[in-house]
Amino acid sequence: MTKNEYIKQLADLAGVDRDSATALVEAQSDLVENAMRKGEQVTLPGIGKLHIKRNEARNGRNPRTGEAVAIPARNVIKLKVAGALADAVA
What we know:
43% of the residues lie in helices and 30% in strands. The chain is of the alpha+beta class. It folds into two domains: 1-39; 41-90, Irregular (HU Protein, Chain A), CATH 4.10.520. The strands form two sheets. A three-stranded antiparallel sheet has the order 1-2-5. The chain has a two-stranded antiparallel sheet with strand order 3-4. The radius of gyration is 19 Å and the shape is elongated. The mean pLDDT is 96.
């Protein structure tokens, strides 16, 4: 589902116009981004929890050449899916 399809379906389900649905999606995106920048966990009801995980620096290998490559440490965003959603998909 694309962003435009998501906004259209959200507008239809909520009974609001497309501009209002677009504003809601953009506001939610901004809220999640700001919270994640602060290092906070974000709970999206019915979807799951977003949290930050630290991947430490490690050594890897270039699959083409087999040469050792240093992989730097970085933060990644993880999603723990809500149980109801996981059950619905399974």
